[in-house]
Design brief:
Length: 209
């Protein structure tokens, strides 16, 4: 069983593995970002978090412990000077791992590990607040739209003047039809009556004969 044995071996001896990670963590704090494989990046994150915790302590013993790991004194002094400004208000989450694909040749998964600033955390908090505010406002806007639709569907109650005008129109007598329509109707009635007169004349003539 592999109990109480943290970290990964990476198919290397202890001395080789520690020397490799000491070089990598020195480069990380010197250039703020490096490119390596996924497995090494995840293990390097533990080393970087430990050194930042020592720098936040800031005493002489912590500085000596950091100098025992990092190979360059200038990098240690830079870390201890800038740690409060960069990581003072955050506790954890000092690094970010970005996957960039696979390496040509052996197709090993490659990632970029970089240090995260306090400004990045502030931007993330602002973005989260905006998203929460938008989610809260969305149901309110939907409710307002529903009320507007319901009010549009309901018939608008007319004023007293409009009601009086409508009742006056109903009570008013209907206007006579136009003169042309009256003449047309009278012509139709005359046509219908003429054949009846002719038939009556014919019947009288037959009786005389």
């Amino acid at each position: 069983m592999r109990h109480r044995k943290s970290g990964i071996k990476l198919n290397r001896t202890i001395s080789h593995r520690q020397a490799m990670f000491r070089n990598m963590v020195t480069s990380l704090f010197k250039y703020d970002r490096i490119k390596t494989t996924d497995a090494k990046a995840k293990e390097l994150r533990r080393w970087a978090d430990h050194l930042i915790t020592l720098a936040k302590r800031g005493d002489l013993h912590a500085r000596r412990q950091a100098l025992a790991i990092v190979r360059e004194k200038n990098v240690v002094h830079k870390l201890f000077e800038e740690v409060q400004k960069r990581f003072g208000k955050i506790s954890g989450g000092y690094t970010r791992i970005i996957k960039v694909g696979r390496r040509a040749g052996d197709a090993a998964p490659v990632s970029i590990i970089e240090l995260v600033d306090h400004d990045d955390h502030a931007r993330k908090k602002k973005a989260r607040k905006k998203v929460k505010a938008a989610k809260k406002e969305a149901p309110k806007a939907a409710g307002q739209d529903m009320t507007a639709e319901k009010s549009a569907e309901k018939p608008r109650a007319g004023t007293e003047e409009e009601k009086q005008a409508s009742t006056a129109e109903k009570d008013a007598p209907q206007e006579p039809a136009d003169a042309e329509e009256q003449s047309a109707e009278s012509g139709r009635q005359a046509e219908q009556q003429t054949p009846e007169k002719d038939e009556s004349v014919e019947t009288e003539e037959e009786k005389k004969e």
